[in-house]
User: Which sequence fits this backbone?
């Protein structure tokens, strides 16, 4: 009987050893898996840390750019303020110029002509701008450009508009580039003789204004 038990025990011992080996293998496998998982986690954590370190300068740069924006806005506001100040200064200067009264440079003299009330000359009179080009030819055709520019010159010194003007005589005044006109308002309350001269490339320049007492003998 004892010999059978011994044989049975010997028979069971290898089976137990196999089970232990399997359990050890399983445990070893579990440990390896845990090591792999842990290592993976550690490596991933290190990668995340490195990426975070790389991103920090970019963030700082963005912050720096963000901090510069208020400065740009301040510069823009300052430029706008300076521009506004300049515009105000220009407007003020223009207003001062407009407020200054124009100097009266007209000179009045008397005349030996009994029908002339007064004679007016002004060194600041300017030629009436002309549209004519080329060699100038004085014209007394009331449909011509030259005639129209003579009338415009008369209006400039007398203040009589074309629609309220009677042209009693407009003629040569002793030279191809000299003319004299006798005009009045339609109600004849204002009567003048206007002497003018042609200035090449500029137009007709008034040189003398005579205010008349009467039209009789004026032309």
Assistant:
């Amino acid at each position: 009987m004892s010999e059978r038990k011994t044989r049975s025990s010997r028979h069971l011992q290898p089976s137990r050893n196999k089970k232990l080996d399997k359990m050890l293998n399983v445990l070893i496998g579990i440990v390896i898996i845990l090591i792999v998982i842990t290592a993976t986690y550690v490596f991933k954590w290190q990668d995340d840390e490195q990426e975070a370190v790389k991103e920090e300068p970019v963030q700082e740069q963005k912050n720096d750019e963000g901090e510069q924006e208020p400065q740009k806005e301040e510069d823009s506001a300052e430029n706008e303020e300076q521009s506004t100040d300049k515009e105000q200064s220009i407007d003020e200067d223009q207003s001062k110029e407009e407020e200054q009264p124009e100097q009266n440079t007209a000179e009045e003299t008397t005349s030996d002509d009994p029908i002339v009330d007064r004679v007016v000359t002004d060194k600041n009179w300017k030629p009436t701008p002309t549209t004519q080009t080329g060699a100038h030819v004085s014209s007394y055709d009331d449909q011509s450009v030259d005639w129209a520019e003579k009338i415009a010159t008369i209006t400039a010194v007398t203040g009589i508009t074309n629609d309220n003007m009677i042209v009693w005589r407009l003629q040569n005044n002793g030279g191809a580039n000299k003319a004299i006109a006798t005009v009045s308002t339609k109600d004849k309350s204002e009567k003048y003789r206007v002497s003018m001269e042609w200035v090449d490339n500029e137009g007709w320049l008034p040189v003398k204004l005579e205010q008349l007492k009467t039209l009789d003998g004026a032309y």
Notes: The helical segments are 2-99, 145-158.
